[in-house]
Write a structure and sequence with these properties.
The structure holds two protein chains of two kinds.
Chain A lengths: L1 E2 L5 H4 L24 H11 L5 H9 L4 H10 L3 H14 L4 H13 L3 H14 L4 H13 L5 H11 L4 H13 L3 H14 L4 H13 L5 H10 L5 H12 L3 H14 L4 H13 L3 H13 L5 H16 E5 L3 E6 L3 H23 L7 E6 L2 H9 L6 E6 L2 E5 L11 H17 L6 H14 L12 H8 L9 H6 L6 H20 L1 H12 L4 H9 L3 H15 L1 H22 L3 H12 L11 H11 L3 H14 L4 H13 L3 H12 L6 H13 L3 H13 L5 H14 L3 H14 L4 H20 L4 H5 L1
Parallel strand pairs in A: 3-4, 4-6
Antiparallel strand pairs in A: 1-5, 2-3, 5-6
Helix pairs in contact in A: 2-3, 2-4, 3-4, 4-5, 4-6, 5-6, 6-7, 6-8, 7-8, 8-9, 8-10, 9-10, 10-11, 10-12, 11-12, 12-13, 12-14, 14-15, 15-16, 16-17, 17-18, 18-20, 19-21, 19-36, 21-22, 22-25, 23-29, 25-26, 26-27, 29-30, 29-31, 30-31, 31-32, 32-33, 33-34, 34-35, 35-36, 35-37, 36-37, 37-38, ...
Chain B lengths: L1 H14 L2 E7 L5 H19 L5 E5 L6 H14 L5 E7 L2 E3 L4 E3 L6 E2 H8 L5 E6 L8 H4 L5 E4 L12 H8 L12 E3 H18 L9 E3 L18 H5 L1 E4 L13 H19 L6 H23 L1
Parallel strand pairs in B: 1-2, 1-3, 3-7, 7-8
Antiparallel strand pairs in B: 4-5, 5-6, 8-10, 9-11
Helix pairs in contact in B: 6-7, 9-10
Classes of the chains: A mainly alpha, B alpha/beta.
């Protein structure tokens, strides 16, 4: 997954495995100590998979007691009526904390964590030590992969040491953090409290299954307690999915549904995961079943809505090795550029990783970021730019974000590194490694130092505050961040770890580690085997290395911030001399900073104000070379380079812009003209075709440019077609008329000089 | 026909006069005040480059209702039927479901008052109301042979507009000259600005708060995309706003009259064929079109000798 470093919300949502979290799969819907024995009885029946469960809840749903009625409807999964009943009950008993907790739990099950959290908070306002409310808060935080989930669970256990669900949740969090031994420890503690802790048993089975062990001991115990406890397999499905072992995840969801066909959360996850792999028909069937059963959570609704429209909007282009899916409204514009980068990335990775992918890979590009989020996560709200599901990659289109907000080619290369690494390891690779390698490859494999994310302020602050994580614990930074920017910092750190290994031991060691992970070694084992270091020994070398590498930026960060403010103020005051003096002084303190308000653009503007175009151009050239992405600044640079007669450099600048933002027809037109002048007709053809695909109002001009380019490559028939297209739009367009006369005369001459057919010779 | 019209228009410019009045209304805030007067000033400069154009601008404290009325009343006596007059309104407008008002220092001026003043001017008219809520003025301002452009499709689109910016840009950007006849017609300027405005909102990922429309039949609703199908745009296509180069020099050369006549015939035939495109088999359409375009290119070569 490629995140946008400037969108810190992404960090809060923790790198994207939010999607598999709304399943309710860990929730045994426990009974309050204070609630009626009737509810307890129903819950006990449910826990043991007793066929009388439904009848029990039906009886409750007919109760005159509003709370019992709500429980009954909730137990029957009649969420809408249960919601009304809970509302009425809370109105009648506004100080009943437990009632609010139960209502909140229903919202958790129904994938409305915001409403759930509100109710848990209200319950805690009434009773600050309410263990179930604290556990509810832990559930909500855990669903959002927030770092404080474990804290809430611990608080709940402090309030009620026998709260087995809280212990089970700690086991789950540990396993998500890729600490199976800790997960086992917590699960066993839960079993010590209750021998029938079904989710603890499911976690233990999952730990085994993830390690390709049978897990029979645990699943047999589950099924002995409850022969229809599909949740156990659903829990496994969740962990296989978050470990990117999607095929196996799907199989576990199917097993869950075999045991319990009305486990709607599992059916919804199955549908969403099938859609990720293009199995839209079956995905729709499962999601519609959920919807028709009144399980119309946002995940189900959003995904069905997307499925309704996606097939009508998408155009598919296939080659023997790739499937490219683009929105019809921009496919003509995007296809040449995306196909070229896709082919180049695959050829490069095939060579680099010494690995050939046998089946076609698929790339989907979404102009609507909301659609992309639903496609990948089922819900909107994530700051991801691209996501990989095995051999399927989905990403934002350059038109899906404001211009310049991301480098689409870099994102594409990032995701395709995942495609190879996941294939090579059969999806058994730690998150830190595959993300770190993908970050590293954005510049290393592409060969373009201006690609990828720049060193960002959160990473500088993390280095300054010694917040980087030990290598053995780095996955936690991706899954359960403890501060908002930690996901972004972890991407940075992952990339730096790979850089460090590559520089110190060589890139072959990185490749060897991929194979180690394929052989089911974990991080500690791979580091030990390839680098002959224990993880703490690795950290002892890595941290000084990274501290030295970024010493200038870390030490100078505060001064740089202060001085940048002064530069900004000087620019506002049009004190150009001060901008130049102050700006030049701090520019190289933190050269990677190319976001809005960067020094390069301040300096360029100051030089322009002083009519020193050469220096202004030099600043923007620095900005471009270091990875600046503002289309406006890059266009400005290209114009300056054209004016200075630096046509090749201008073309290179506009080529860079093409990898960032493709929708600007004026830039394509400019590049088309430059390529015509630079005798690069094939480049000109691509650019003028882009001008037309961008929907230019100057169709005559674009067709004429295309005609000239075709003529330059002696593709005279196509040139004639294009010149006619140009003149049809503008019959009096003199340059096109001249070209038409020339091409037409050439065509006549060719016909006259063509050899006569053999039959005529005989005559 | 487009070129024929252009030549007619170009010829007319030799004998008829072009009048322009730009009014930048009340900004209310500094940023709008500066933006509106800046746009008016830019437009003023561009239009003054048109040979013989009589360009006038009201902005800031001068843009009062009294001054607008005085300028329009003067034009009612100064202009002739062959002349052309372009009124551009920049700034904020409002609409109360009954009438549109252009916000100016002092009392506002309503669409009804503007229409009444414009009706007295004999020249061919173009009204570009680029203000917020300008769509609310269209039904009042529209009249046969008068081109009315509004930056918004309705009086309910009340946000400050960006249409003006792109309308002015169309007079600077050669790509706005889509028929490559070295002049920007009102229609070309509208299409350019409408397209760029839509792209602006799309690129900024913002909900579009303005949708420009044009109307030149004098009846019915304004349209976003004028075409042969909806009949809108013919008058606007004839009205040249700005010449980018000299196109009129050959018109008066007697030796070229025969060639010019042939050129006009071909251009008319090309335009007619375009309008019949849907009814003509594709292959036949292409053959005829290509032959005429080639003939036209050859005639042009002779004319240029």
């Amino acid at each position: 997954m490629k995140l946008q470093s400037t969108l810190l919300v992404a960090a809060v949502l923790s790198a994207g495995f939010y999607f598999a979290q709304r399943s309710g799969m860990f929730r045994a819907t426990p009974v309050e100590a204070q609630t009626s024995s009737q509810v307890t009885q129903c819950e006990a029946l449910r826990k043991h998979g007793d066929p009388g469960t439904t009848a029990c809840y039906q009886a409750l749903s007919r109760s005159r007691d509003l709370g019992l009625k709500a429980e009954g409807l909730y137990g029957l999964r009649d969420y809408r009526n249960a919601n009304d009943a809970f509302r009425d009950a809370v109105k009648a008993r506004p100080k009943d904390a437990n009632l609010k907790v139960r209502w909140g739990r229903m919202y958790v099950d129904y994938s409305q964590p915001g409403d759930a959290a509100d109710l848990f908070k209200e319950a805690l306002e009434i009773d600050e030590k309410n263990a179930k409310a604290l556990y509810g808060m832990a559930l909500v935080a855990s669903d959002a992969f927030e770092g404080n989930a474990a804290d809430f669970a611990e608080k709940a256990l402090k309030a009620d040491p026998n709260l087995v669900e809280a212990r089970e949740l700690l086991a789950r969090i540990a396993l998500e953090d890729n600490h199976p031994e800790k997960a086992v420890e917590e699960a066993k503690k839960a079993l010590d409290t209750s021998g029938e802790a079904l989710d603890a048993l499911a976690i233990l089975a999952t730990v085994d299954w993830l390690d390709d062990k049978p897990g029979k001991e645990w699943i047999d115990r589950v099924l002995k307690i409850n022969p229809t406890y599909g949740e156990a397999y659903s829990i496994a499905g969740h962990f296989f999915v978050i470990n990117r072992r999607y095929d196996e995840g799907i199989q576990y969801y199917r097993k869950a549904l075999e045991l319990k066909p009305d486990l709607w959360s599992a059916r919804a996850e199955l549908g969403v995961n099938l859609m990720r792999f293009g199995q839209n028909k079956e995905a729709r069937e499962h999601l519609e079943q959920c919807f028709n059963a009144n399980y119309s959570s946002p995940l189900v609704r959003n995904t069905l809505k997307l499925l309704d429209s996606i097939d009508k909007r998408v155009e598919t282009f296939t080659t023997p090795t790739t499937v490219l899916k683009l929105d019809k409204k921009e496919s003509a514009l995007l296809r040449p550029y995306f196909q070229a980068e896709l082919d180049r990335a695959m050829a490069t990775y095939e060579k680099r990783y010494k690995f050939k992918i046998t089946q076609p890979v698929q790339l989907e590009v979404y102009p609507d970021h909301g659609d992309f989020e639903v496609r990948t996560m089922g819900l909107p709200g994530l700051g991801a730019l691209g996501v990989t599901f095995g051999k399927y990659v989905a990403m934002d289109s350059p038109s899906g974000r404001p211009p310049g907000q991301f480098h689409w080619a870099s994102t594409l290369w990032h995701e395709f590194s995942h495609v190879y690494v996941l294939s090579m390891t059969n999806h058994r690779v730690p998150r830190w490694f595959t993300e770190g390698l993908a970050v590293y490859e954005e510049t290393a494999a592409s060969g373009a130092t201006d690609w990828g994310d720049r060193l960002d302020p959160p990473s500088i602050i993390a280095m300054r505050d010694k917040k980087l994580l030990p290598i053995a614990d780095l996955d936690r930074g991706f899954i359960h961040p403890t501060y908002p920017e930690q996901v972004i910092v972890s991407y940075f750190q992952g990339g730096q770890v790979i850089t460090f290994i590559s520089e110190k031991w060589g890139y072959d060691k990185v490749l060897a580690m991929i194979h180690d992970f394929a052989d089911r070694k974990d991080t500690v084992e791979a580091i030990q085997k390839e680098l002959n270091l224990k993880p703490e020994e690795f950290d002892a070398q890595f941290f000084p290395w990274i501290d030295a590498k970024y010493k200038k930026q870390v030490d100078g960060f505060e001064d740089w911030q202060k001085q940048l403010k002064m530069v900004s103020q000087a620019a506002k005051n049009k004190d150009w001399s001060a901008v130049i003096t102050e700006g030049t002084a701090i520019r190289d303190l933190y050269p990677d900073f190319v976001e809005v308000g960067n020094v390069y653009e301040f300096l360029a503007n100051a030089y322009l104000a002083k009519d020193d175009k050469a220096k202004a151009m030099a600043e923007l050239e620095r900005y471009s070379a270091i990875g600046g992405r503002s289309p406006r600044a890059l266009e400005q640079l290209a114009d300056m380079q054209i004016e200075a007669g630096k046509k090749r450099e201008a073309a290179a600048t506009l080529e860079r812009l093409n990898l960032i933002y493709l929708e600007d027809e004026a830039s394509h037109d400019k590049l088309g003209k430059l390529y015509t002048e630079l005798k690069n007709p094939n480049g000109a053809i691509r650019e003028y075709q882009a001008v037309l695909a961008a929907g230019t109002i100057d169709k005559a001009g674009a067709h004429f440019g295309l005609a000239q380019a075709f003529a330059a490559t002696n593709r005279n028939e196509e040139a004639l077609d294009e010149v006619y297209n140009s003149l049809e739009a503008a019959p009096g367009f003199k340059p096109a008329q001249a070209l038409l006369r020339e091409l037409s005369s050439k065509q006549s001459n060719d016909k006259q000089s063509a050899p006569k057919p053999a039959g005529n010779v005989k005559q | 026909m487009r070129t024929l019209i252009l030549l007619a228009g170009a010829a007319l410019t030799l004998h008829a006069d072009s009048y322009f009045l730009t009014v930048a209304g009340l900004g209310g805030e500094d940023q709008y005040e500066q933006r509106f007067t800046g746009w008016a000033s830019d437009l003023n400069k561009l239009l003054k480059s048109e040979p013989g154009a009589k360009v006038d601008t009201l902005s800031g404290k001068d843009a009062t209702r009294a001054n607008i009325e005085a300028k329009l009343k003067a034009l009612a006596t100064q202009t002739k039927a062959d002349d052309s007059f372009v009124l551009v309104l920049i700034g904020h407008g409002s609409y109360d479901d009954l009438d549109y008002k252009f916000n100016v220092p002092g009392p506002d001026i309503s669409a009804t008052e503007l229409a009444s003043l414009l009706d007295k001017i004999p020249a061919k008219q173009v009204v570009v109301n680029a203000t917020s809520a300008s769509g609310g003025s269209l039904s009042t301002l529209q009249k046969p042979k008068r081109v009315v452009i509004t930056a918004t499709k309705a009086g309910s689109e009340k946000n400050a507009t960006v249409f003006t910016r792109f309308f002015i840009e169309s007079l600077r950007d050669p790509t706005a000259d889509t028929d490559k006849n070295q002049s920007i017609s009102v229609l070309e300027a509208f299409r350019y600005a409408e397209e760029k405005t839509a792209k602006y909102f799309e690129t900024q990922k913002r909900l579009a708060t303005e949708h420009a429309i044009i109307e030149d039949l004098g009846k019915g609703e304004g349209v976003k995309a004028p075409s042969a199908e909806n009949g809108e745009g013919l008058v606007a296509g004839r009205q040249v706003l700005l010449h980018l180069g000299s196109v009129a020099s050959i018109v008066n050369d007697p030796e070229k009259q025969k060639l010019l006549k042939r050129k006009d015939e071909l251009e008319t035939q090309i335009d007619e064929l375009k309008y019949r495109k849907a009814a003509v088999p594709q292959r036949e359409y292409q053959q005829q079109m290509r032959q005429m375009l080639l003939d036209l290119a050859k005639v042009q070569e002779e004319l240029d000798k």
